[in-house]
Amino acid sequence: MSMADDGTLLLVGATGYLGSLVAAGLLSQEQVCVVAPLRVNSSRESLIGKIKLELAIDGLSNEIDFERLITVELPSNHEMRNLLPVIQKLDVSEIIH
After folding, report:
1. Rounded to an integer, what distance in angstroms lies between the CA atom of residue 11 and that of residue 35?
2. CA distance 42 to 23
3. Cα dihedral 62, 34, 5, 90 in deg (nearest 10)
4. CATH of span 8-96
5. What is the pLDDT of residue 35?
6. Three-state SS at 60
7. Domain ranges within the chain, ordered by starting residue
8. Helix (H, G, I), strand (E, B), or coil: what is residue 35?
């Protein structure tokens, strides 16, 4: 992936299979911050566990700076506009969906 160094990316669907795979790749190869909106029934710890599993499967270093992983609450569909202030505050430069 060729994302700008030191950028902040919003990763939609990070807790799914493909999303956690993408998050693992971004956090292991790029100097970016990844913002992951999570549903209320998901947790940061669960997402980190999935990312660590992906890294182990791929034989990648498990020494990821998880400070670069920012989790926020995913608003309900009819309140999705409430995510905009978070995107602006964190200076998100790209959205990956």
Report:
1. 6
2. 15
3. -140
4. 3.40.50
5. 97
6. coil
7. 8-96
8. strand
Distance in angstroms (rounded) separating the CA atoms of residues 9 and 66: 14
DSSP state for residue 6 in the 8-state scheme:
T
Both tokens assigned to 50: 């999935």
Check whether 1 has a pLDDT greater than 70.
no
Q: What is the pLDDT of residues 33-56, one digit of tens each?
A: 999 999 999 999 999 999 999 888
Mean pLDDT of 60-73: 86
- Residues paired with residue 95 on neighbouring β-strands, in sequence order: 10
Helix boundaries (H) for 1-97: 17-29, 44-57, 84-89
CA angle 13, 18, 21 (to 5 degrees): 105
| CA neighbor of 37 nearest in space, from 67, 78, 80, 66 | 80
Q: What is the mean pLDDT of residues 54-68?
A: 82
Span 10-39, average pLDDT: 92
Which token pair is 12? Answer: 């939609």
